[in-house]
Amino acid sequence: MSTEQLTADLKEQAHDLGFDLVGVCPAVEPSGLSRFHEWLRAGYAGEMRYLEERQEAYGNPGSVLDAVRSIVMLALNYRTAEPQSPSPGEGRISRYAWGESDYHDVIHSKMKRLVAWLSEHAPNARARGVIDTAPLLEREFAQLAGLGWIAKNTLLLNQTFGSWFFLAALLTDETLAYDDAFETDHCGTCRACLDACPTDAFPQPYVLDATKCISYLTIELREAIPNDLRSGVGDWLFGCDICQDVCPWNHRVPLATNEAFEPQPEQNPSLLVPLFFMTDEQFRMRFRKTPLWRSKRRGILRNAAIVLGNQRAEDATDALRHGLEDPEPLVRGASAWALGKIDNLDAGRILAERAASEQDQLVLNEIRDAQSAGEDIRG
């Protein structure tokens, strides 16, 4: 079989498996490597230390698969519905996490079959499929493979699917026919994504300061969300889609047909108060197979408290009292902050009672700050 025929058949098989976009590029040093290193040096990665620890590997696709020659870039649309506006006591979840399963599991199943197909039709080829867990600059290679351009919000944009898709890569030591790189930037003079960010996470176009990004703050950050960024989190419980929602290219994307990405009950949006009363086992049963598990229980409850505080949700006082008694200091601190935002005497009483017994100094600081904030609110 010729290289061209093998490549064409491989692409057809990928489409048959449900991938919406397929492109092929050579396994070379990514063109954006120097920008990646500059981004790391600027401290924009925050606590994602694994990026810096593996930064040399990102320059060499051979670190993912030895003797790799070709990279097949794949995209899978996940736009299944429109988000519902949350009511007080509800939090928003990023679209990609609405489904009943983690997208890694969904894509892994498809990738496994694609690798098996390649092994059958090119018996001497070695291949490895990866889904955003390997040291690979996926967006750079996706642009090189012709799937789209890297937008001002740093996401990959495609003229048909916008940015509502997951990226995955199949690496192989087989030589394939390569697509032309996507050379045109169709963002033009548009600044919608940059201007809409409530935490000013874009110091300049095409550069993201992850330490200010709501997705980073609610998913990757393991500690307390910085006080000056909490109000910017708004009602986002997990992730953020603001810079995608405002993008004109994302307004015309066809709906995905994969049922695994359909929003599950209480995911679009999610009730917050019940989260504080769930047992560890109930929490595990609900979130273990979803992307929200990455934040773990302590992170989700921290986020829920921040959202309730931003909403000044008086009917959540009892839930926040429960959070103020949580074994995790992270949850207690966020619950204290939220109670300080609520204008009622119960919140003040709960804070005073906890201040008398709290042993963690950081949490105690949060309580004292919350008491001061509550006094300011009540005049």
Report on this structure.
With 379 residues, the protein is of the alpha+beta class. It folds into two domains: 152 residues, no CATH class; 179 residues, no CATH class. 39% of the residues lie in helices and 10% in strands. The strands form three sheets. The chain has a four-stranded antiparallel beta sheet, with helices on both faces. The protein has a three-stranded mixed beta sheet with strand order 8-3-9. Strands 5-6 form a two-stranded antiparallel sheet. α12 packs antiparallel against α13. 46% of the residues are buried.
Calculate Rg over CA atoms: 23 Å
Task: Report the order of strands and helices.
Answer: HEHHEEHEHEEEHHHEHEHHHHHH
The helix fraction, in percent, is 25-40%
Mean pLDDT comes to: 96
Number of strands: 9
What is the domain tally?
A: 2
Topology readout:
Blueprint: H1 3-16, E1 21-26, H2 33-41, H3 49-53, E2 70-77, E3 90-93, H4 103-121, E4 127-130, H5 138-144, E5 149-150, E6 156-157, E7 165-172, H6 192-196, H7 214-220, H8 227-233, E8 236-238, H9 242-245, E9 270-271, H10 280-287, H11 296-310, H12 317-324, H13 329-340, H14 345-355, H15 361-378
Parallel strand pairs: 3-8
Antiparallel strand pairs: 1-2, 2-7, 3-9, 4-7, 5-6
In short:
With 379 residues, the protein is α+β, with helices and mostly antiparallel strands. The protein has helices at residues 3-16, 33-41, 49-53, 103-121, 138-144, 192-196, 214-220, 227-233, 242-245, 280-287, 296-310, 317-324, 329-340, 345-355, 361-378, and strands spanning 21-26, 70-77, 90-93, 127-130, 149-150, 156-157, 165-172, 236-238, 270-271. The chain has 15 helices and 9 strands.
